Amino acid sequence: MAKKHLGQNFLFDPSILARIIEVSGLTADDLVVEVGPGHGRLTKMLAMAARQVIAIELDRDLHKALLSELRDFSNIELIEGDVLEFPFETLDKFKAIANIPYYITTPIIFRLLETATNLESMTLTIQKEVAERIVAKPCTKDYGVLSLAVQYYGEPEIKFLIPKGAFKPTPKVDSAVLNVKKLAVPRVAAKDKKFFFKVVRTAFAQRRKTLSNSLKPLQKENLLPVLEALGIDAKRRPETLTIEEFAMIADAL
To answer: Measuring CA to CA, which residue among 124, 120, 45, 46 is closest to residue 83?
Structure first.
């Protein structure tokens, strides 16, 4: 039985699971990390397609059942624990594949992007609306902090959609399979990464205001000369700026 407090929604359709593996680009030489193996259906398919699988399960009852369910697979390492505490930085090159709970989607994504030095890509089944925000481009309603944060580290793409009826228990919304290829270096070379993200968050905190107004909390003196020197119209709204333009503003400030 699914545990509501862990946000468990299980995907059983083997054709959908096979498609997830296909779009992940998994090869026989790969190390793959699965977050939340659940009942082990995808785990078994990953083990047959990859060199090694590390499966991390938080639910003690599921972990116990998986020990028996996966006992015939010598290339699966099953770990009971919290993925947000897993030392991804200790792994060799790997790909992450997961059907992750909606409530913890963003923390998992950034745990992988920020700490997993050797992450090659991640293929995640997540809430459709969140996936749309992640891949959003400038001048669209979904474009915002999450779009810029993920695109700073990687190249996100929605591979396909999964209707809510494919899961048990059935969630309230549809899902999307999102693939993010990790960039070798961040998309922009901001002088100070923390300040760059501070600029982005400050701008989108008041996204309907013009840049000259939304960025006021960052600098007491007039911002107009700074923006003018960069060739950026101070009357533009934050959602019209590219990631490169945000980096330029952060470096100038």
So the answer is: 124
Q: How far apart are CA 135 and CA 141, in angstroms?
A: 12
Q: What is the pLDDT of residues 114-151, one digit of tens each?
A: 999 999 999 999 999 999 999 999 999 999 999 999 99
Structure tokens at 39: 């009942």
pLDDT of 171 > 90? The answer is no
Q: Are 106 and 216 part of one and the same domain? A: no
Distance CA 159, CA 18 (A): 13
Enumerate helices (H) and strands (E) in the chain, giving the number of each: 10, 9
Can you list the positions of beta strands (E) in the chain?
Answer: 10-11, 31-35, 52-57, 76-80, 94-99, 119-127, 154-162, 167-168, 175-182
Structural domain including 229 reads 193-252
- C-alpha span between 89 and 97 (Å, rounded): 17
| 2 lies in some domain | no
Q: What angle do CA 202, 195, 226 make, to 5 degrees?
A: 75
Residues 107 and 146 in one domain: yes
